[in-house]
Design goal:
This protein is of the alpha/beta class. It is built from 6 helices and 9 strands, in the order H-E-E-H-H-E-H-E-E-E-E-H-E-H-E. Helix 3 crosses helix 4. The radius of gyration is 16 Å and the shape is globular.
Length: 178
C-alpha cells in the first residue's frame, strides 16, 4: 500500500473520455469527500519546501488547490488564466497544444520581483501548460522552483519536462497510461 492510496481510491476513472483510448482521471469524486479534500491539502502543504509568498493556480481546477493551500501557507493566490479573461494589463505566454497553440496570462502587477511562488494544479500530463506557467512567472520576476499536483500521468512526461526546467515536482498519486 502506498502512502496516498486512500486519495487515489477517491479518484474515478472514466474510460474513453474525451475520446476513445483516453482514461480520464476525474477528481470531482475526491472533491466531494470532505476528508479527502482535507487530506489532499494537508499533504500538499507538508510537501511544500520553504516559505512561499504566492500559490499560483492554473485555470480552472488549479484555483481550488491554490486557494486551499494559500491559507495554511500564509500566502497570496496568483491566478493563471487563459488569455483574455483578466481585466487590466496582463503579460502572457504561449504554449503548444496537440493541435495548435494556446495562451495563458497574469496581471502585469500580480507579483513583485523576487516573490517566491509555488505552482499548483490538479493534474500534470504533457506539462505544456505548467511549463508555460513557469515561464510566465519567471518573466514577471517571480522565483518558482516547485510545483505540486494531485495527479501525475508519468507516461506523458510532463513532470520530467518540468524537472528539466529546474522545478521540484511533487504529485500525490500517479496513474499509468493516458
Amino acid at each position: 500500500m502506498n502512502a496516498n492510496d486512500d486519495l487515489k481510491a477517491l479518484i474515478r476513472t472514466i474510460p474513453d473520455f474525451p475520446k476513445p483510448g483516453i482514461q480520464f482521471r476525474d477528481i470531482t469524486t475526491l472533491l466531494l469527500d470532505p476528508s479527502g479534500v482535507a487530506r489532499t491539502v494537508e499533504r500538499m502543504v507538508t510537501a511544500t519546501r520553504g516559505p512561499v509568498d504566492l500559490v499560483a493556480g492554473i485555470e480552472a481546477r488549479g484555483f481550488l488547490f491554490a486557494a486551499a493551500l494559500a491559507v495554511p501557507l500564509n500566502a497570496g493566490v496568483l491566478l493563471i488564466r487563459k488569455d483574455g479573461k483578466l481585466p487590466g494589463t496582463t503579460i502572457a505566454e504561449d504554449y503548444a497544444l496537440e493541435y495548435g497553440q494556446d495562451r495563458i496570462a497574469i496581471h502585469e502587477d500580480a507579483l513583485v520581483p523576487g516573490a517566491r511562488v509555488l505552482l499548483v494544479d490538479d493534474l500534470i500530463a504533457t506539462g505544456g501548460t505548467a511549463r508555460a506557467a513557469v515561464r510566465l512567472i519567471r518573466k514577471a520576476g517571480g522565483l518558482v522552483e516547485q510545483a505540486q499536483f494531485l495527479v501525475d500521468l508519468p507516461d506523458l512526461g510532463g513532470a520530467d519536462a518540468l524537472r528539466g526546467d529546474e522545478i521540484a515536482v511533487d504529485a500525490l498519486v500517479s496513474f499509468p497510461g493516458h
